[in-house]
Design brief:
It is built from one helix and 13 strands.
């Protein structure tokens, strides 16, 4: 089995995501991905390991992570790596939660989608069946929504909000189930 290993480091006071190692066993890659915390700087390392435990690729992100996941986002039979990190962007200089999707191509980690934002302010995400991603988002009115996104051509597209303009407590109940 091939493994992708990602290690993440957070700034002091931050919490490294609990899930940080994911097995991958699909038509093109067998092994695991591991997220590894960096010891001397803010950031994390993503390691891709093959069935023999050999590192086939790695990359470093100099940002604070909040969630890691894997899923076949674009439904092509290949597992993608989903990374939640906090960073500013060129067009949005405030540090916010962002969502990156990485693909595995010939035992190498490649960017697939480096999303600067979803429809509203991203709070959290998780993968669902059939390539869907569910998001917890803050609305412009200060309430919260649960979004359901799917891959379309070159990015994530909102299918619908399953819940909209709800309290954070209620949104968390729905999102955590």
């Amino acid at each position: 089995m091939l493994y992708l290993s990602i290690l993440a480091a957070c700034s002091s006071g931050s919490r490294f995501p609990e899930l940080h190692e994911f097995p991958i066993n699909d038509q093109s890659f067998k092994g695991k991905v591991i997220f590894q915390e960096l010891s001397s700087t803010t950031g994390f390392k993503v390691l891709l390991l093959n069935q023999s435990g050999e590192i086939t690729d790695q990359t470093i992100f100099r940002y604070v992570p909040y969630r890691f996941d894997t899923a076949d986002v674009n439904q092509d039979g290949k597992t993608e790596i989903i990374v939640g990190l906090t960073k500013a962007t060129r067009f949005d200089p405030s540090e916010k939660k962002r969502l990156f999707i990485l693909r595995i191509d010939d035992n190498q980690i490649r960017p697939m989608w480096l999303g600067s934002k979803v429809c509203q302010e991203l709070i959290d995400f998780k993968s669902l069946d059939n390539g869907y991603l569910q998001t917890l988002e803050r609305t412009t009115a200060g309430k919260f929504s649960i979004g359901k996104y799917y891959w379309q051509s070159f990015g994530l597209t909102l299918e619908n909000y399953t819940h909209n303009e709800i309290t954070l407590d209620y949104a968390n109940q729905i999102f955590r189930n």
